[in-house]
Amino acid sequence: MLGGTFDHLHAGHRAFLAAAFQRAGQVKIGLTTDRFARSEGKPFTRTVQSYRTRRRNLLDFLAHRFAARRWKVVPLNDRWGGSVGPGVDLLILSEETRRAARPINEERRHRGLPALRVYVQPQITADDGRPISSRRIRAGEIDREGHAILGKRNRRPVPTKG
Hints:
Elements: E1 2-4, H1 11-23, E2 26-32, H2 34-39, H3 51-65, E3 70-76, E4 90-94, H4 101-110, E5 117-121, H5 134-138
Parallel strand pairs: 1-2, 2-3, 4-5
């Protein structure tokens, strides 16, 4: 089980998903709904792609990259998603969301379920050494592969012939 907004599906997302498929025979992916994404207070929320667009991009990627594997994409409407229900035995988290493991496992114990094993996927860094994130893509700092986008804020001087 893993979850996320998967806005502007990028290299970090692809590594996150690949980690899940390396560790599980069947992967359940919670995709944050528009309502839940807005409630999270993410920067540049108005520019987060719609649920429909994010779902289509995620399904296209999964069908292309993991066609022979078992997976399911479900709406993620709250902080728990399907992680506190039966039938889940592994939770894949990013470094950014690693703190979610403790409350999820506490809630599972409260519901009489065993704690989940947890794997934390290291962040993928952009060319500048900072993590690739949808937030940075929405801000226009980097592209989906982590390459700098030259603009007003991060323009590099152009060498001149002398």
